[in-house]
């Protein structure tokens, strides 16, 4: 295992490969001719609902309206006293309420990670015409309905509280909820346990750092494609704006220190970017086989075409500077989707605002897309910050809204664009009208985890 440097992200800023790090083997991977797209309605996967919990509220439409407006969700933390932290700001959710979605007794015992997941799930089911207690929900075959909702960290605050109790009060005072509510799979489990949902089908979590949400989406879709489920809930949740997570990420040098101006701190592709802004929330999709959706007359939003995963196999926190494994992931996602690179004209980029990460992703994209003249590419994290395990779910929803509305949101805070991004239209500062033919959403995380999902307008 390579040594994790105290300021690993900052060290990578020079975009050079330290001589002490082994070079992964490279093999030639050509983009094969895209196969025919899936035609079997039992294997075609569509999105019929989506739910969010975000710094911009808990309504998917309002969430996207704020993105289109180019608003920033970053501000100084008031959930706890951030005095002494090198980065005292984040894209913190304020005024969150689970009323009407979680009963009071359960709500008091949960970590925010699970609260966000449960509320986003309820909202997603409602938008899919599957409100709890409805006839449509009652007609779901629970044995063929599952959940894949993940978290990069899990119940951070619950675990931190357990440690504090251990240190200050002794082992007999540690809450029995500490472990169950800290483990990353509990959001997925509680969604199924939730009264009125009770899905009995495949249920697990993928925990792959910042690639978690996208991993969960394509993993859930595969359950439908393989004939194991008719309907799946998929996405990610995270609630890491807590002292231990903020302090740990700051120690890595991962966070922006633009303390005097938090709203402009997240600067994807800007020459003066200095790290990401920590965010939180949840994004959950309702995914169904086309056959199942049509049988119940569901509101089909978009079609999920494919997805893929890869690993940099390079470093604990730094991306591989050459972007090779990320490009491999993009290529494989397009092959899985039956899509040629020329068909893609929208990219929701990972674009965290880290010096090394932004450049590595650009290199990956340039290896796949030779002609970028028709592509619009934007960075949702410029406004909502980096939501870690929830990022893939929230950014998939932003991608879906771009397809369904015909508007792509801007990337804000591009004051001094990096020359490396010159060949891409990054939708600088103002939303644009754009018909999305095929859109991809990139998610890359610590450990070199890469995940990409592909969506397109639904066509019979």
TrEMBL record:
<keyword id="KW-0275">Fatty acid biosynthesis</keyword>
<dbReference type="InterPro" id="IPR014030">
    <property type="entry name" value="Ketoacyl_synth_N"/>
</dbReference>
<keyword id="KW-0150">Chloroplast</keyword>
<dbReference type="Pfam" id="PF00109">
    <property type="entry name" value="ketoacyl-synt"/>
</dbReference>
<dbReference type="InterPro" id="IPR014031">
    <property type="entry name" value="Ketoacyl_synth_C"/>
</dbReference>
<keyword id="KW-0012">Acyltransferase</keyword>
<keyword id="KW-0444">Lipid biosynthesis</keyword>
<dbReference type="InterPro" id="IPR020841">
    <property type="entry name" value="PKS_Beta-ketoAc_synthase_dom"/>
</dbReference>
<keyword id="KW-0808">Transferase</keyword>
<feature type="active site" description="For beta-ketoacyl synthase activity">
    <location>
        <position position="210"/>
    </location>
</feature>
<dbReference type="InterPro" id="IPR017568">
    <property type="entry name" value="3-oxoacyl-ACP_synth-2"/>
</dbReference>
<comment type="function">
    <text>Catalyzes the condensation reaction of fatty acid synthesis by the addition to an acyl acceptor of two carbons from malonyl-ACP.</text>
</comment>
<protein>
    <recommendedName>
        <fullName>3-oxoacyl-[acyl-carrier-protein] synthase</fullName>
    </recommendedName>
</protein>
<feature type="region of interest" description="Disordered">
    <location>
        <begin position="15"/>
        <end position="43"/>
    </location>
</feature>
<keyword id="KW-0443">Lipid metabolism</keyword>
<dbReference type="InterPro" id="IPR018201">
    <property type="entry name" value="Ketoacyl_synth_AS"/>
</dbReference>
<dbReference type="InterPro" id="IPR016039">
    <property type="entry name" value="Thiolase-like"/>
</dbReference>
<dbReference type="GO" id="GO:0009507">
    <property type="term" value="C:chloroplast"/>
</dbReference>
<keyword id="KW-0809">Transit peptide</keyword>
<keyword id="KW-0276">Fatty acid metabolism</keyword>
<dbReference type="GO" id="GO:0004315">
    <property type="term" value="F:3-oxoacyl-[acyl-carrier-protein] synthase activity"/>
</dbReference>
<comment type="similarity">
    <text>Belongs to the thiolase-like superfamily. Beta-ketoacyl-ACP synthases family.</text>
</comment>
<dbReference type="GO" id="GO:0006633">
    <property type="term" value="P:fatty acid biosynthetic process"/>
</dbReference>
<comment type="subunit">
    <text>Homodimer.</text>
</comment>
<dbReference type="InterPro" id="IPR000794">
    <property type="entry name" value="Beta-ketoacyl_synthase"/>
</dbReference>
<feature type="domain" description="Ketosynthase family 3 (KS3)">
    <location>
        <begin position="42"/>
        <end position="457"/>
    </location>
</feature>
<keyword id="KW-0934">Plastid</keyword>
<dbReference type="Pfam" id="PF02801">
    <property type="entry name" value="Ketoacyl-synt_C"/>
</dbReference>
